[in-house]
Amino acid sequence: MGEPAIELEGLGRRFGERTALRDVTLTVPQGATLVVLGPNGAGKSTLLRVLAGLLRPHAGTLRILGHPLPDEGWRVRGRIGLLAHEPMLYRDLTPRENLRFHARLHDVPLTRIDEVLDAVGMTARADDPVAVLSRGMVQRVAAARAVLHDPELLLLDEPFANLDPAATALLEPLIGRASGRTRVVTSHDPAGGLAGADLALGLRGGRPAICAPAREVATADATALYA
Amino acid sequence: MHGKGLRTLAFLTALTLTAAYALVFFWTPNEADQGFVQKIFYLHVPMAIVALCGFVAGGVAGLMYLRTRDGKWDLRAYVAIHLSQILACGVLITGSIWAKASWGHWWLWDEPMLVSFLIVFLLYATYQVLRFSIEDRERQARYASVFAVVAGAFVPINFAVVRMAQSYVHPRTLGTTTGGMPSEMMLTFLIALAGMALLFVTLWKYEMASKSAGAQVRALRLRLLGDDDALPRRSAAPTL
Amino acid sequence: MLRAVGAILRKDLLLELRTRESVPAMAIFGVTTLVVFHFALNRPTVEGDLAAGVLWVSFLFAAMLGLNRLFVAEEEQGGFDGFLLAPIDRTSLYVAKALALLTYLVIIELIAVPAFAILLLEPGLWQALPGLVLVLLLGDLGICAVGVLVSAIGIRTRARDLIVPLLALPLLIPVVIASVAATAPLLAQGGAEALPGRWLLTLALYDAVFAAIAYAVFDDLLED
User: Fold this and answer.
1) What are the structural domain ranges in chain C?
2) Which of B129, B134, B150 lies at the smallest CB-CB distance from C149?
3) pTM for the full predicted model
4) ipTM value of the model?
């Protein structure tokens, strides 16, 4: 089983005077899926960014894949994949060029690019600039970028928004439960989110209102977060 | 914490400065070439030296902030830099007055101290602008610290390069000839230097104490009145 | 580190080639500045000190133009995040951007220096060329070392376009002092004189010191 993928203890993060996260404590074992629910502004994206090592925690402790962040953040970079609202793709470059750039940054063999492009069904449009692609296509390429380096931990910010069912089905093996990776997924769909997860965290105003295994959480409670 | 010893320090500063300038006016002889006007040297050079040290100290404080992320260091850097900036202003003004009185021009391009300070003054003028343009407190402190480090390292280098560049057609005797000064002038100069340094330290401590107290008051207000109240205005000064 | 620098540099050059945003504008701006100088100084030709000054001011202003755009793609298209998540030394971004800027400056100089020779320069340029290339290189490195750092400071602030020139120009004055002092003898009326070694040394030292400082603090600029 090994060490838990994520261990949070009293995690807090401010932006100026505003507290975005407060007192978040949880443990996510390897291979498990954590769903993060809550209204807009509750701190879901902030949490993801802290887990990714992009934001420094202002309170509490954080261990990712057994290493404390931010002190040993450099050890786990490259083992985390982030799919955020921003696709992190250069609009004037093609998907292939974007992926080539990321492959070089992560020291991944260039052959992998064709693999992931094929897996997300974007081989046909791989040489058109990202600017001309539809939202759904951009999301697919972004997903490809997120898994290009085969990360152990996936952080997904509403990954299936903007996607039609066909595309969603395409991405499932890569970033869904079937991928076998440890995942943290934010979702605006309480029922669906809980169904697809092992653990659930409900945030409200930055504080954890719900923190339990997913099957113990009633959908009504999750929906109540939005009240 | 900063307020301790402030009164003694202030007293000492007043004493040293009075002594220094009394000596300047009543004891030290007039300089052969330039006469009475040269006495501005005892104000101009100590200000310059203390300002230079202040800028470098600001750089060191900035570096400490980057290493420790303790807001106190950012405050120290901020206070050191803006006090030095005021002194730099004084350097430019006293230098200009001396230039006009001695040489008939309000500005001299071949006085390396003056030219260096002009560049440094312009550089640090951006410090407040930079701070004010970043709203997030932590980022403001971090970026200001980077600036302080870079600028603090730049100050001595700039001085050296400007000196290299000056063509010494007319050697000016204001700034830097401390060799060949008669002993009375040297003594007065050193006392004036000590007085200026004490003045800097006193003002620095005073401002640190005042800002720390302000921060404590604000923290108490926050605790008593809750998170939402006392939303701060944007400001360039660091808050703890 | 080298791999990361190479990757970023290739990406930047590819983007620039694709969008042609910075380099043409910088080149045109450089040449236009030369023309403005002709009218501002009201002289048909320049030589020596004046020539060196005109040349370097024109480069400086063209570089300012480029600096503002240096990190824009990263800031607007989420490039910083992608970069921060990769297992690489963060200072490689600094090195890569500096090399990119250097490339742009060299391209601009290939256009602006001949333009300068034709439009404004009194003495011939051929003799001076090898020395000039060396001074240009060292001066450009100074502009890049300072410029990339300042651009990175400015990119996350609100008044980005103002902060960059305000910070960069004072920090670049020593580079200007040394570059002009080194260039002036090359463009002297009576034909190119010897290259003043001490100014080249000063330039090289300034470049090295600044690069070292930038290397030390760059990490702290990138995090959030």
Assistant:
1) 2-221
2) B150
3) 0.88
4) 0.87
